[in-house]
Amino acid sequence: MIFDTVKQLLIEKFGEEVIIAEEPNQKQPALIIKADLIADVCLFLRDHPQTWFDFLSCLSGVDYGVEQQKFGIVYHLASIIKNHTLVLKIATENNRDEENLPSFKSISAVYKAAEWHEREAFDMLGIYFENHPDLRRILLPDDWDGFPLRKDYKTAEQYHNIKIDL
Amino acid sequence: MQNTLSHKYQDGLIAYQNKIKAVAAEEMVLNLGPQHPSTHGVLRLELITDGEIVKEVIPHIGYLHRCFEKHGEALNYAQIIPYTDRMDYLASMNNNHAFVMGVEKMLGIENDIPKRVEYIRVLVCELNRIASHLIAIGTYGIDIGAFTPFLWCFRDREHIMNMLEWASGARMLYNYIWVGGLFYDVPVGFEDRCKEFIDYFKPKMQELNELLTDNQIFISRTVNVGILPLDVAINYGCSGPMLRGSGLKYDLRRVDEYSVYPELDFEVAYAKAEVGSIGDCWNRYKVRIVEIEESLKIIEQCVEKLTKEHKRTKEFDPRALCPKKIVPKAQDFYSRAENPKGEVGFYFIADGRSDKPFRIKSRGPSFCNLSVLPEISKNVMIADLVAIIGSLDIVLGEVDR
Predict the structure, then answer these.
(1) Is B68-400 in CATH node 1.10.645.10?
(2) Beta-carbon separation of B16 and A134 below 8 A
(3) Residue of A63, A79, A112 to mutate when probing chain B, most B C-beta within 10 A
(4) What is the mean pLDDT of chain B?
(5) Which residue in A16, A76, B53, B276 has the fewest CB atoms around it within 10 Å?
């Protein structure tokens, strides 16, 4: 089972503390990784001949709710050669202040596909990615205020004198 | 810059603005789109050009953003299906199918779905795949100056539109595949009409091949243009005809073996370098042509099954398994399927209490396929850039969601 193999390989390479928790009973088992190490973990899993996760299917930013004060990223990796998939998660505490955005390491150097997905997470959820080559808003205009997919987002009344009517 | 975000988070925007300011005197910044017909919708490309040579392409997207993910959090699962129609509006059935499969797997009812329902789903998805590829091919012709294939493709696509309208009631945005079943059984006589369509359409494909695929002008415009190497394609998350056009035999219908695809006989089309180099525009185009032929094979087999083994019966109710209220257990799940454009994915987080997803994220294949454009269009002619954009076959509804 690839999930156990990955777990073992990661512990051998990075030590016990790399895996914070795991969700083995899900339909798609997930590993919760120490947030600082995510870029190294992805690079290692991409290039290791046993795992060979060469394809980033999806990268989703998640706001876990107003009570939780927690933001996370979920990575769906796939291997074309080996035909298996893996879910990695990272998370961080954050007080939702615009001066202090939740911040993670970018994996766009490992998977170029992450570049636009990370821009989307920044745009929609206000999650900052360190070492990203081109981090600016992607779907919304550059002068938009706020992050719409946050659970506490309030719709602005107007945008450039255009009334926003819901 | 007028937004209130702290400057320490705006380094990307500042770097971009400085780059545009610092364009050299002999270079020119040229806007292509968002209303340009060759950008296939509302895509805006900022080109830094030196004469006719494109030095850099900066895509700007979001003009068609309709807050799919935000809406999804406020609606229950059955109500989201019509929104998935509007993502890739040229292949709504395929989007419906991917979404519905994900919800069914979360509920754990994916093995209870009657075979007849699954065959009808595959049948309409493959019809829609042909329609989508016909648009890709027709508009690609018009991008590089061939007007006739565009009209021919639209004429043939109209037959499919009429058939799907007959089945679902809508011409393009169907909301036909439901969680646990279908909106309705296919109408009486639908199978015969499929057969008629196949008989009609096969010679038309021959004509289309003579007109476009083997056309010397078309070949000159597309061969060795916009070569996408396989490693770049994989790293950028390209999928569908983009990935197969780079020579990899990878199709989720075969890899994941979802629905009834394992029971069906078809080949996965991929580039074999008959003409030009693997990964160029012509090969991507050719993959779509071959996929149309393979889809016709699938339709023939589905019709065969639907008229013999899984015949229409009076008791058959396609809505019998549709849950009244969809409340999945607390979990998160990523569902993926092969859309005409590539891997369409939905990531759900269900909290276990409500009938609305806590978070829904959609991965549009066009979104990832488009992100490779700046990489493969460095130092090409502007006219070739138009040929490259056309060969990506993007739908902006899905890029912007």
Answers:
(1) yes
(2) yes
(3) A112
(4) 88
(5) A16
